[in-house]
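Re: that chain you flagged

S.,

Sorry for the slow reply, it's been a week of failed gels. I finally had a moment to sit down with the sequence you sent. For the record, here it is as I used it:
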Amino acid sequence: MKVNNRTKKRTMAIISLSVALIVTLLVGCLSLKGMPLDSRGLYRLLPWVPSPGNWPESVSLGLDLKGGVYVEYEASLSQEQIDGGADYASLMNATQKVMVERLSDKGFAEATVTQIGNTGIRVEIPDVKDPQAVLDLIGTPAKLEFEDPEGNIFMDGSYVQTASQSYDNDSKPCIQLVLTKEGQQLFGDMTARSIGQEIAIYLDGQLLMSPVVEAAIYGDVLISGDYSVETAANMALQLQSGALPMNLRQDKLDTISATLGQDALDTSVTAAMIGIALVMVIMIIRYRLCGLLSSWALCIYIIALFFLIAVIPGIQLTLPGIAGVVLGIGMAVDANVIIFERIKEEVKGGRPQIHAVRIGFKNAMTAVLDANITTIIAAVVLLIFGTGSVRGFATTLLLGVLTSMVTAIVVSRFLLTNASRLVKNPRLFLCAPDAQAEKEV
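Prediction finished late last night. Pasting the structure tokens below so you have them in one place:
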């Protein structure tokens, strides 16, 4: 019975590892080459893992690697602000903050907004496909006003808590406004008094809609119109970030060349691949079969990490971002080293190999989690308080550390557990000295 149980476990281990290897090879080929999704080739799964001379389109690049556009604005105060003695410096900072928020919400996390002289603002945006749409987004004020049937403004955009693109009852794109408690009461009372009459809604002085009130509305407000999804989303972003505190006049618009370019990108990818290959060789020499399995897990980690970078919106890789990816790879290898050393200690202590793997993982988790959590805290702080390429580095580092934790805890454990059922020689499995005779499992 014991022999049959052992044979059954070995058979399951062979099947599990074989399936995992086939899946890894298939997904690896897809990540490098992509795949057409229809016979005509109109739809295609884009590759997402880079190789020298072939950077995938699915991974967006920043200014230093891809270039983009820049625009310069002249900022000025309105006459009302001048008469009221407004603080120019604070309004300039507020204007830049609103522009950064709009660009970040639109997915341009690597964009930079800087002040030029006393009155100028320069905005640099990487990898832009439609510059005019982005310029309309960042340079257009968003002043929302509601007028009662007599033409009096009874509410403005300050009562809007959140604004988002949604769909109305006819499944057409619209703008959904979530009002504050005061705004809900104000809007509800006005609509209650205006049943059968029109209420006008204006954005930047232009009439958006003038619906006839059919019932009192004390909840969310849907602004419908002849909008595309993109237009409704841009308007919602403008309303969400608020009106620009200052008047802006566009002075200059031009393209920015990549400061590093394709050669630097290819060199970085080549260097990273050489480094990864050397790490794999060292791991195999040092830990033998466990080193080979950790190299397998590292390949899965790289595929998963670049997939997340490709599909998560707002990530644009710069050279600091690539540094964050490489640092994450180092963290993934470091976790495996800690786990292997704990397993080796258990094997030296005479535990059966399968039990040594289980206990070694359990004992290593505290050190692995502590090291990764401290890095996650640092990355989160940089992500919250950093801007531009600093946030890009923090984003890729955070993704890399989280992915490496999952890879070490789930993938490496799966591979080692199944391999320990097939290879019983500690010297071949982990380059460890022979332990006491293993108990049959």
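What I noticed first: The CA atoms of residues 46 and 349 lie 49 Å apart.

Talk soon,
D.
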